[in-house]
Design brief:
Elements lengths: L19 E5 L4 H12 L3 E6 L18 E5 L5 H14 L3 E4 L14 H29 L3 E6 L12 H21 L4 E8 L6 H13 L5 H9 L8 H12 L10 E4 L8
Parallel strand pairs: 1-2, 1-4, 2-3, 4-5, 5-6, 6-7
The structure holds nicotinamide-adenine-dinucleotide (NAD).
């Protein structure tokens, strides 16, 4: 990445026109919001998910369907993952929002190797393969770019009942740092976002599992975690999408190898 002489207020655009942005897990809560933000800022947006239909954008957002190209790939399937990385090689996106992941629960006594394999296959193996394909395409095209991996507050500490998921998100943070250092001389920035609790469809699964493991009523865990956030509520997908826009754009051109928490103050770290 080259230094510029700009020192003034003019040169920090969030405009993404002319950029191609790829979003995985694009039909979920955070993925849909982020794809919408990228498109609204002028990007061509490539979306992918195991879900066949393109993300269901809020009609009020007026997303131009021509700005979106959706392909369905199951990233837990070897062929699906290969087809996705081939698509990345073909399209060489400037920005990757590497977001697809699944949640499951269990302590070291309950969480077996089958759960380990499923969670690590999507949250780490596919995350790595998609990041690697994007980095390779950008380096061979000789241009910079921005890779944003989705971590979690769960990646910053273990949880008694969430052994494997926490470990996958810690791995995302580690791969983000290693990739960022390797790619910095090539002008490709790599950062991660660690959301706290965000109100998305994933929380239907999380809440139901906590109800089972902690003997709670449905909806109880979700309410409790929202109340425990210092800012006082569960985050919303657009609050993560705005940080993704920042990391995708020139606004953050001197930031790499970092993990930004978007959690209402839940996790404090030095
Ligand atoms: N919601 C939260 O509270 C929260 C907190 C911390 C981190 N995160 C992370 O944010 C990211 C997005 O989460 P979300 O809350 O929007 O979840 P979500 O469940 O709404 O979205 C996840 C998307 O991934 C897709 N997906 C699942 N399996 C797939 C597969 N095999 N191949 C391809 N796509 C697949 C799903 O279809 C879904 O559209 C994830 O990485 C998650 O771990 C979420």
């Amino acid at each position: 990445m080259t230094e510029t002489a700009a020192t003034t207020l003019d040169a920090a655009p969030t405009d993404l026109s002319g950029k191609t942005c790829l979003v995985t897990g694009a039909c979920g809560g955070i993925g849909t919001a982020t794809a919408a933000h990228f498109a609204a800022l002028g990007a061509r947006v490539l979306t992918t998910d195991v879900v066949a239909a393109a993300p269901a954008f809020d009609p009020a957002d007026n997303i131009d369907p021509a700005a979106i190209e959706h392909r369905a790939f199951d990233l837990l399937d070897e062929k699906g993952l290969r087809d996705c990385t081939d698509w990345i090689t073909e399209t060489a996106p400037d920005v990757l929002f590497n977001n697809a992941a699944i949640f499951d629960m269990g302590s070291v006594l309950d969480a077996d190797l089958a759960q380990f394999d499923r969670l690590f296959s999507l949250n780490v193996r596919a995350m790595y393969a998609v990041m690697r394909a994007t980095a390779t395409a950008l380096v061979s095209a000789g241009r910079g770019g921005s890779i944003i991996n989705m971590a979690s507050q769960a990646g910053h500490r273990g949880e008694a009942l969430v052994a494997h998921y926490c470990a996958t998100k810690a791995a995302v943070i580690s791969y983000t740092q290693s990739a960022a250092l390797a790619l910095a001389p090539r002008g490709v920035r790599v950062n991660a976002i660690s959301p706290g609790v965000i109100d998305t469809p994933m929380w239907e699964t999380v809440d139901a599992l906590f109800a089972k493991f902690e003997n709670k009523k449905l909806g109880q865990k979700k309410r409790e975690v929202g109340e425990a956030v210092p800012l006082g509520y569960m985050g919303r997908p657009f609050e993560v999408a705005r940080v993704a826009v920042f990391l995708a754009s020139e606004q953050s051109r001197y930031i790499t190898a970092q993990t930004l928490s978007v959690d209402g103050g839940s996790v404090l770290r030095f």
